[in-house]
Specification:
Oligomer: single chain
Structural class: alpha+beta
Shape: elongated
Radius of gyration: 49 Å
Largest sheet: 3 strands, antiparallel
Length: 128
Amino acid sequence: MKKLVTIFVLGAYFLVSTGFVVNLHFCMDRFASWELGASQDDACGVCGMKVKKSACCHDEVKVLKLQHDATGAHYALFSMAMPAEVPSFASLFLVPQVLPAAVPLPPAHGPPLLSEQDTYLYNCVFRL
């Protein structure tokens, strides 16, 4: 059942989205008949007169189609003008802050610093 409803809805949407032609026949300025597709009859089916644009019988052909109100995406182009030269001025209040130089830290696994004692006493190396 669902498949039949789906097929019917898809068929109706396809018919409306692609469009179809309806021929409206007016006889003596009154609506007389309609038919699907355009007809090229020379004589009126109601009164038998020849169908001409200036006569009393005329046909109107209309195309019925689903109108899509959606439009494509628009993008805006901005022209970026070059900025004017910014005036520069010196002020005593706008002096940049001077940071002190970073104190270098000793390496993590460096040799020990030499003390006031002699090195051979510090390392306990006695030569005889």
